[in-house]
Amino acid sequence: MAATGNGPLIPILGFLTCVAFIYLSFGDLWFDYKGEAELGFVRRNGTQFVVDGKALYVNGWNSYWFMDHAVNDHSRHRVGAMLEAGAKMGLTVCRTWAFNDGGYNALQISPGRFDERVFKALDHVIAEAKTHGVRLLLSLVNNLQAYGGKTQYVNWAWQEGVGLSSSNDSFFFDPSIRRYFKNYLTVLLTRKNSITGIEYRNDPTIFAWELINEPRCLSDISGDTLQDWINEMTAFIKTIDKKHLLTVGLEGFYGPKSPKRLTVNPERWASELGSDFVRNSESPNIDFASVHIYPDHWFHDQGFEEKVKFVVKWMQSHIEDGDKELKKPVLFTEFGLSNLNKDYEPSQRDRFYRTIFDVVYKSAKRRRSGAGTLVWQLLIQGMEGFNDDFGIVPWEQDSIQRLMMEQSCRLIRVTGRHHLQDKKSRDMCSQHKP
């Protein structure tokens, strides 16, 4: 009878014992996960990115293909798999396209018409990134024709009989096309994520907006046309979204009036593209500068050793600009070494990456403006159609994976963020001590 009288107490005690066991076994993991999921907005303090009052130096990557692969059921898993792999390497930012204008799986079918199915794919990308504690640098349009780009906007205006010119550069000066683009910006920035319920402009998962990938305006090498467009569009974006950082998306070339056009640019042609690194990045609504690193594409007669020397000079020059001229962070948003070079050897890519990582690490240690790097590009298996001569499946190249993990840990130590790491990151960095 006594046992029967204590009956209700036994299952309660059993339940509490079970809860205690789960907490003791997995409590640290649970709290770490919660801590990772709650991302704060990235801000700028002078020449540094900051989050919650501490400096942030970026070690990340490009996977431009996220939205495209998130559209279809059979390929959607690749987004989560890549984000998980990046997070396991300690990577903090991924740059990807938030545009697809016209064509297959278009986000913007025609001016002002959007495919909700594709928008939900972008919702998925952002939600997945948040789950894995990775921030996104979202690019808003392409200077190149891939995924529509400025060519598609010009074609739309021409087809509707309102275009001023069939030149691709009319994207920058045609009033009708400017209205098209502003409408797209409004719809995108105010989009309410169908998964998280958060408007894009209010979501700290988004690291920053990139205005345009690799802008060039060959019809006006003075740079005035592009500069006017940058000033107008960045001011417009800031009227809608004051919470996120904004960058141009430059390759980093110096324009015709810059003294560095002769001493730092790869060749003369680089000063005749209608862009200028310092002038464009000085625009008041631009929060940080962006630079690309592609000596393979910029030189045709240099050997590997000469390219490595150029890379160091190129990076140091732009970091100097960030420190002295711009007073803003400088993020190297694309870099890579082609495997199609005649003298290419896999070990060269290791050294190329190491050289770039070392420049950023030294800049971080001195609290200078070199704010980080994003490798072009990372993929997972079975994506040959999206690969190029720079693409890497990181777990298939152990040396590259180790280099990236080591860089993540070095930057964490510089910023004193040890206590913000989860257990997996702590374990990773304990194996990559200097």
TrEMBL record:
Keywords: Glycosidase, Hydrolase, Membrane, Secreted, Transmembrane, Transmembrane helix. One of its GO terms (biological process) is mannan metabolic process. Residues 41-376 form the Glycoside hydrolase family domain. It is an enzyme of class 3 (hydrolase). It holds the Pfam family GH5_mannosidase. Its EC number is 3.2.1.78. It is found in: Secreted. It catalyses: Random hydrolysis of (1->4)-beta-D-mannosidic linkages in mannans, galactomannans and glucomannans. GO terms for cellular component: extracellular region. One of its GO terms (molecular function) is mannan endo-1,4-beta-mannosidase activity. The keyword Transmembrane applies. The keyword Transmembrane applies. It comes from the Eukaryota. The chain crosses the membrane at residues 12-31. Belongs to the glycosyl hydrolase 5 (cellulase A) family. This is mannan endo-1,4-beta-mannosidase. It comes from Eutrema salsugineum (Saltwater cress).
